[in-house]
Amino acid sequence: MDLGLAGRRALVTGAGKGIGRAVVETLVAEGVMVLAAELDPGCCAELEAMPNVRAARVDMSTAEAGGRLAVLSQDMLGGLDILVNNVGAAPLRHGFADVDDDAWRRTLDLNLMSVVRTVRATISLLGGSDAGAIVNVASTSGRYPEPMLVDYAASKAAVLSLTGALATELGPAGIRVNAVSPGPTRTPLWDEPGGFADALAQRHGLPREEAVVHHVRDVRKVALGRPATAQQVADAIVYLVSARASHVTGTVLAVHGGMATHLM
Asked: Which keywords label this protein (predicted)?
């Protein structure tokens, strides 16, 4: 199926690993030129080696990041058609009392304010496109929070609300705004030492892989019984920015494998 993306120009944040990396690879395969924003220098070098990708090492938690990426999009790509706000972090907590003001600020700056600042800085570029599209990567945690992700969940709830407001305001300018809301997704965040899988093993008192299965099937009640892959989430994102979704805006596309708490 032709997605009608050849020749388009995209900015993807948090592009080095997991969902962001899969989005970059999928867009490139569809003929899109990509500016990939990433903080890790090793990931930047890998991204830069890909065809039709320019990498920018940017700390998306800073106030100037959005403006810098808007300038780079114009200079490197000659404009912008697509923005994928993917960057984010999900620090694991013992509970609400574990998160002080500085921790709240760090999470909100990266997960929410990076979206606010990047959209603000790129509106004029996207409005000059005949197919402007924004996808914000939220999370089922935004509607199904839990104490071990309290600040992350709050930041993603705000991203969902922001997506709706932007869709309403930017629609008349021809800019579509949607969100993708992944459920449990097996990314490096899970598998790195001390990551989510290790935390689940400690929390549930089970071996690592058994704890992941228990969390997905019994706690989150995912009907398909397995976490998503980064590629499965990326496919949903790329669909939403494509010509095949040209009348879709203000939508939250859930990629959660049938979580019982989210059905209907």
From this structure: Oxidoreductase
C-alpha to C-alpha distance for 103 and 176, rounded to whole angstroms: 32
Q: What are the domain boundaries of the chain?
A: 9-183+229-258
- How far, in Å, CA of 71 to CA of 192, rounded? 34
Residue numbers annotated as active site:
152, 156
The set of residues, in sequence order, having a beta carbon less than 8 Å from that of 142 and lying 6+ positions away, is: 153, 156, 157, 158, 159, 160, 181
Q: Is the pTM of this model over 0.85?
A: yes
The tokens describing 36, both together, are: 């990939």
How far, in Å, CA of 1 to CA of 228, rounded?
A: 22
Helices and strands of the chain, counted as H and E runs: 10, 9
Amino acid of residue 59: D
Task: Output the CA–CA distances (angstroms, integers) from residue 93 to 74, 158, 213, in the order listed.
Answer: 39, 19, 21
Structure tokens at 176: 């579509």
For the stretch 198-242, pLDDT in tens is: 878 888 888 888 888 888 888 888 888 888 899 999 999 999 999
Question: d(Cα 1, Cα 132) in Å, to the nearest integer?
Answer: 21
Q: Which two tokens stand for residue 27?
A: 């867009």
- How many angstroms separate the CA atoms of 222 and 68, rounded? 40
Tokens for 63, please give them. 């106030």
Measured between alpha carbons, how far apart are the two ends of the chain, in Å? Answer: 29
